[in-house]
Design brief:
single chain; 400 residues; Growth Hormone, Chain: A; 16 helices
Amino acid sequence: MQLWWCNILHIFNDGYLASLSLLLPFMAADLALSYTQAGLIKSVGIGAMSAAQIPAGLLAERGGEILLLGLGTAWFSFSYIALLLATAYPLLLLLVLSAGIGGGVYHPVGTALIANVFPPERSGSAIGTLNFFGDVGKVIFPALTGVLVVAVGWRSSFALQGAIGVAVSVLYLFFFRRAIGQRWRQRKQGGVSTAEQRREGKATLLERLANWGIRKPAQFTLYTVIGFLDSAVRSAATAFLAFVLMGNGVEKSEVGWLMSLTFFGGAIGKLLCGMPIRRWGAKRIVLLTEVLMIIGCFLLPSIPTGWGLLLFLPLFGFMLNGTSSVIYIGLAPTFERARRSRGYALYYTLNFISVALAPYVFGLVGDAFGLEMIFYSAAVVMVVGLPLVFFVRDFEGVDG
């Protein structure tokens, strides 16, 4: 039951980000923003998520993952409702910052919760399923947002999505109220001692990594660098995808479902690429998806509207997202079971730094050299990082 609730919350958390990417051109047109300013909106939101993830992972160890997941999604949702007030660019950035703080809870806490709930032999498939449902949100929300933005505008579109998210968050907390109460009773009976906290403060670098739950630092670092580059390319591509579609002549009313089609391909990529990891190994799958991502970024700006675009977009989504599930599953053996919340929090924080920086940095490229160069330069970034994949170890299993 916990997996299905986490799946639902993942739909909202990832769906909100997808709707933000879709609405960037509409916000830019309404407020007369450049590519750089539009990219900064997403950068601020993702940056806040990045900053919130380590505190969220640590708070989850104290107050419980379930409580943090519910409160984080509620905060995210309330911030989207507040975007009704965003009549100026500075206020818009401030409210997106608030949304990002709430959104920073889900990924480290939710992934660790599922990794701990399931036995080792089932954790890989459970995490893959969890990631798949995040992309279900990326399919549903852009399609819904594409309809809403034409009917009621971008501000009301944010608010309606937020209202639904608040209701779901309250239901989640109510459903697991007994588990939340039990965790607080356990917290009162024990916890990390003051002496242990002092020892953590005086630890060496390797000891600090161990205290963060990282028992295989080399592989953790490798996965983190690959994920950093992969996420930067994906963030830039999704942030400016709607701009490319509209620039190529796609009608405003059609942008939403075309982006949903892209994210649908991403959902299939996450689901399928995570399943054969035991048989094929992480190295082969990551290498394949990254090469396809590079090709897709080079091709996208020149794909004409019509059937060619309809066939290409889901494949492009598959290319963009296929690597992430492999990385999430591959990370699990690098952590100690008892401290996966903070271990995933550290990874997601470092990973989300690239997600936050990419829209702004590539927005500067777009303003200087044109929209197409955003995608060409993203492909080059991934080419530079491709040799790192050869040092990835094959999947060892999700153990404790």
